[in-house]
Amino acid sequence: MALVLHAGEGNKNAFKVLIAAEYSGVQIELAQNFEMGVSNKTPEFIKMNPIGKVPVLETPDGPIFESNAIARYVTCSKSDNPLYGSSLMEYALIEQWIDFSLMEIDKNISRWLYPRLGYGLYLPPVEEAAISALKRALGALNTHLASKTLFCYVMTKTFMAEFPHVERYFWTMVNQPNFYKILGEVKQAEKVIPIAPSKKFVQPKEASKSKPKEEPKKEVKKEAEKPKAEAVEEEEAPKPKPKNPLDLLPQAR
């Protein structure tokens, strides 16, 4: 049985698997007619990954999900593969940078990019925190690459100017034949993409926008009296108690 990779077209996590396969000389077939949002919700796919996420690799011994695990499987399929180093220390360092890339770079790029694409609620403070964390990570990587011989939507030339060694390394990698075969020509963003309407929180946004627009207009005058009204409500709450005797008058009759 050939190795079959299930993933949507242009999936960034599938790219790492396919590039690793090119370097390792491992043949991988792409699942035919895969449609994200449809194919990954079928009972057959859920059996391979209960979460329904991609990519998933079908192997003779069973399915594997999580892109880094798949890339490791592909890399280790070739004995003495230099991609995994020649010593325990080199192996550990490779694993170190895989985890670093995932948790410090990929994660923060996603926090910055996806809300702008409309996948999630856009919050400026969250974006600022993501950019700050990303710069911190790229700064660390830039220092590391200074003595050693990422980008379409938000990583502009201006942004990357702070990290020249990272940028140099990036372009060196994407222009290698095995990268180019999978990615094609990589172009850098000229400017950060604009913020798109949220695809998940459209209704809450409209609801939250409609209320403040209507209430201030209709209750501008009342708002000034609200504190008094609220105070009256709190004070008048006990007043019905002394009025109870009025209700008792009929009983007195």
UniProtKB/TrEMBL annotation:
PROSITE patterns referenced in this protein's UniProt entry, alphabetically: GST_CTER, GST_NTER
Pfam families: GST_N
Comp. bias intervals (Basic and acidic residues): 206-231
Record GO terms (molecular function): glutathione transferase activity; translation elongation factor activity
Protein name as catalogued: Translation elongation factor EF1B, gamma chain
Keyword Lipid metabolism found: no
Domain GST N-terminal positions: 1-82
Region (Disordered), start-end ranges: 202-253
Domain GST C-terminal: 87-220
